[in-house]
Amino acid sequence: MHAKVTTLLSAILVVSVPLGAMAQGARVPADNVAAAPSIAPDQAPPPDPYGTFTFSVENDLFGGGTDRYYTNGFQFSWRSPSADLPSPLAWVNDRLEWVLGPGTLRWGASFGQSIYTPEDTYRRNPDPSDRPYAGYLYGAVSLSRTTELTSRVVELQLGVVGPSALGEFVQNNYHDIFNIKNTEGWDYQLKDEPAATLLYEQKRRVPLGSFGGIDAEVIPSATLSLGNVQTYAGVGGTFRIGQGLDSDFGPPRIRPALSGSNWVQPRRGFEWYLFAGVEGRAIARDIFLDGNTWRDSRSVDKRPLVADFQVGAAVVWHGVRVALTQVWRSEEFYGQQGRQKFGSLSVSFRF
């Protein structure tokens, strides 16, 4: 497993170095320029006086019709107007200049929860070979730099895994509202544990051209996450077609995922796009499968490689972005009963 993780980490470094060089205006051999589509010189986007508030919800009932594994997640997020940085974060930003590179600066804050359950949620004593019950409640702060073609994000998540994350409370009260039978095995959930994750992500927009007024592009991405919750390296990419692709880097998702941008900066009154993407992750640590770090708990044997495939659509109208995403996720642990399918809905408002 460690060899596979090391291999993917090396691949990310190989991808990241060219992306960083291109973002800073590195020269490209003439032969490559001749073969490549015409791309405008990279520059910072126009100043943005508006921040973006986003609400995202993900659930396996959306398109999946199930109630298992990664069963629910929600997140509230705020992304600042460009270059509107509180003084405590300014100190951090100065020391991350070499990581974030050039571009328009935004800071962000998020609050969210993710809930995980086994396949059979009616057993009071869950199958020990199935995914353990777990809740994760967290807050996050982030710094990002964007140009017209690149995006880099550093995010720190702090929270708690276990009963204090209120997974049982949220799930069973939701079930009560909709007259759904309660889950019975929460007494065996992961124990309380402080949670910390540091994440770095970078993307580069590669325009493919315009066809009848409809633009097309691909956005390769690389992600590295370190912490006692999830430690993984991921590489992926998104293909998009539509009008107004320069308004964002795709719709947001709840990580781990192939996520776009939590901010949106429209350039016209109405914009839309369709998208499809894939991401592979090499996983060294996943507390929701491996169990608690320092205490005995339920656990399963995780798979070291996991892939997501997603398709969806987004509409931006007068500063409001609505995005729907359907996700197919490969098996995450040995003994899992097939891949998982779930949906994601996000709504973003600028103000």
From TrEMBL:
<dbReference type="Pfam" id="PF09982">
    <property type="entry name" value="LpxR"/>
</dbReference>
<keyword id="KW-0732">Signal</keyword>
<dbReference type="InterPro" id="IPR018707">
    <property type="entry name" value="LpxR"/>
</dbReference>
<feature type="signal peptide">
    <location>
        <begin position="1"/>
        <end position="23"/>
    </location>
</feature>
<dbReference type="InterPro" id="IPR037107">
    <property type="entry name" value="Put_OMP_sf"/>
</dbReference>
<protein>
    <submittedName>
        <fullName>DUF2219 family protein</fullName>
    </submittedName>
</protein>
